[in-house]
Predict the structure.
Amino acid sequence: MPKSKRTKYIVILLGILLCVSFIFDIFLGSVHIPPSEILNILVGNPSSKTSWTTIVTEFRIPKAITALLAGSALSVCGLLMQTFFRNPLAGPFVLGITSGASLGVAIVILTAGAVGIDIILLNKLTGKIGTTVAAGAGAGVVLLLIAIVARKITSNVTLLILGLMLGHLIGAFESILKFFSTAESLQGYVFWGLGNFGGVVWNDLFVMIPLIVTGLILSFLISKQLNAMLLGDNYATNMGVNIKLVRLLIIIGGGILGGVITAFCGPIAFLGIAVPHLTRNLLNESDHKILIPAVCIVGGLLALICDIISQLPGNDQTLPINAVTSLIGAPVVIWIIISQRNLKASFT
Amino acid sequence: MIKKGMYRIIIIGCIALSFCSCNKQETESNVSSNKASVQSIYKNKLKVEYSKSFEIEYLDSSKIVRVFTPDDNRNLIFQYLLLPKGAITPDGYDDFQIIHTPVNSVITLSTLYIGFLEKLNLLNKLVAVDNFKYINSPIVRQQIKEGKVTEVGPTTKVNIEKVIELNPDILFTYGNGNPKLDGQLKLIQTGIKVASSTSHFENTPLARAEWIKFIAVFFDKEKEANKVFNKLVNNYNKLVNLTKGVKDKPTVFTQAIYGGIWFTPGGKSYVATQLKDAGADYLWKDDSTTGSLHLTYEQVYEKAYNADIWIHVHLWDKLSDALENDSRNSKFEAYKTKNIFNYNASLNEFGGNEYFETGVINTDVVLADLIKIFHPDLLPNHKFKYYKKLLDE
């Protein structure tokens, strides 16, 4: 079978799997609702219990959409970073954007507790709006910082190291804040760090969807330039690519994708690194015109599967989403590193 | 040869050890025989009736206090030998924390103890607390202002050097039953006497309040503790009798979503018991746990969307806080009918809640508040102390 045809079939198959897991994510949850009732609700008929309608329309559908968005956005962000830095271990965190978001939340939740802002205000800050704004602001500031630095520094390796160091620096600030904070505020921060798709409501989605879609379209539009960048900056320049502009677009696109998801769902681990590798392996492809949509699909699929697993269907308990994404993501990365000995080859 | 020598040493060691344990048994039997013959120096004795997690034993001239894990296994976690001041420690109490009573200076790492100490008129013995912000008691606030009481941080991150410097006769804290994890072991190793309660695991409000006896015994305040506790039991039972006849029990659910988890008290927790005593139908009453349940939003919604009353909602102050927590909270019937009550009627300037300070020892007042929520006609003259209804504003 010719490669392009094989790719097409795989992408179609993945698309079908995505739809199936999206449906499954809506059908399975910690409350048992008969499938026939869910079908009724989905086509707009009243269900035999009014609570079921609310559960499906207000909880499960937004949660499934969030998982899909988060998986796609983080995975495309990871792909952008891996291509940009030509480094297989790059992910949404390398630019320090997720760390920036974490710092934003840490400052708001933890310092509030430490310096003695009153407990009621603390409650507001640790609430959903407080953390979302803080994470968004933190990610934005770091993004701006990196964009400014990127204009001055032309070496991607330097930028990579800067991003990582920024992450460490932020981590150190976080530890200090954690040390001086009270048990309640620490608990709030820990919960935020576990990641959560279920906290996103329709109104949040109306903000998230346009931003994520913009980021994804932006990424897709520069796929030709991304292909050229894989071959090296000099090669790309020779091909007529405006390196400076593309770098800025990658940083902004990746920043929006990573930042928005982290702001609304907390830091979601591993999807961003694992999915681009998984997709490249599946398709044996390095053309971003195909990779970006495919990564979108695989990312969404994996996030939905993780969400289904985290609900532990048939069980009263749930797992934090980060535990599941790490449990699945880490072995994927390990498997890729072991199976693909010439990993470096696909990046140089 | 070397091996043979080793064996010999081990055998001798074993024999020596068995002698030791014999000796220990002897002293113990001596103690119990003394108990029968000599009149105890303690006139007032405390009997633990409600709590299964601690016990007090009176010997002729000493007291033994034991604290157990809050589960069914009842494993011993702490044991204390309380001796009158100046008494010499008898042999055979190596595993005990030896404390000379009455203690005169105390550090508390939970506001719960402030309530107990206040009832026993012992707040003047206080030298440090965990966090000033939590304190409501006007007496302690005054002591803080005068510099008589300092701050040492929470149990898990307590400032050990400061504690050692203050050198209290006893430090009151709380734990989950594992001294190593709860951070008390480190304090004990530095020579600080640590008295730790697991009262938050008790299944009934009265068992929780009974821990006042645990506090009192270190101060030789048996008489006072008995008086306070018996009065409380009396009041509480009177209120329970009020609700015994009620047929129409409103359904109730508690707490709210936090970081993707909805914690709610188990069906055998003291909260569940108190809700039952107040004549309410707690939706998780059939559950068999004493601690907290971790639920998802949809699990709670499925069970509680139609419930009459919603209580214990974090730090919400007004109805709109419900929407700020999660806009989907508006789907609950209790929100639509504005039947949300919270236990934050009495807060200090920092938001420290008096409920956590005196609510345990005033559990009769808490019960009266709850009865007023569920059956206002039963207590027409009662005024809320800890609870309030959330308003639109």
